[in-house]
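The records we work with from here on pair a chain with its fold. These numbers are not coordinates but entries in a learned vocabulary of local backbone shapes. To see the layout at work, look at the sequence and tokens printed below.
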Amino acid sequence: MYRFLLTPRWWGINVFAVLAIPFCIFMGSWQLSRFEDRVDTHRQQEDRSARAKTAAARPLDSLLPVDKVTSGRQASARGHYDTEHQLLVPARTLKDKRGEWQGFYVLTLLRTDHGKALPVVRGWLPGDADAKADAAKVPAPPKGEVTVTGALQASENQGTDGVQAGGGLPHGQLGMISAASLVNIVPYDVYDAWITQTDPPAPLHAVPPAAAEGSGLDLKAFQNLGYTGEWFVFAGFVVFMWFRLFRRESEAAKDAALGLLPETGEAGVFRRLRGMCRLGFRVWRLGRRRRRLGRRTC
């Protein structure tokens, strides 16, 4: 009854199923491991951020370059502020227990003792950076040599929330906090990093540090989880289709053994033609009888 499994067609179906099912399971397990790794990294980042809030600040140069380990750590740098290049970073959102508030960052460059400048986000203010009344509330940076302490952050990119990479901003505004965006604004070298000041002066509000890129439960993490489900669904679909084809083929074999299938070949064609001729002849005779009855009634 199951001899059809030995046909070349079913050899191909069986080989495909045997290879596809383990492959789908492997890919689903791999995507699931990627999601679990992102969850573990997110937890580790949260633990590091909690420890960094109470840890002593370290010199800036000892924490560079910024990576997943050093992001969010307290860094300190000494120098003097460049009061001629204070910039506003518009359309930045600050979240708290009451909700989300729209405003702008106040960024000032700190000329360090090593020659390079460090972008320092001194704080956040509510309002519109384009409004003169809101911009007038920005306090002037302190003069003279100062020591700045804050959470270390990596340079922003086009995928960072709130970034305006398209340009077209008014003079004195910056769309993306990065060394690449500052290279044409200031005449000196800039660190490929920035810090958000821990204790900004009033009326500025402290900007909380963001999680390092690739360490949070972002859209990519949930994409891995979605791909996990898709691969396991594919494996189940292959199994379902194999059993569906097997059942249909076995039922067809049973019907053939009982002689229930329509005949094929020249004999079957001849018998079907003869049946059609008989049916046509009966219809012709029935029509002839009706015509005869109609003549008699007339």
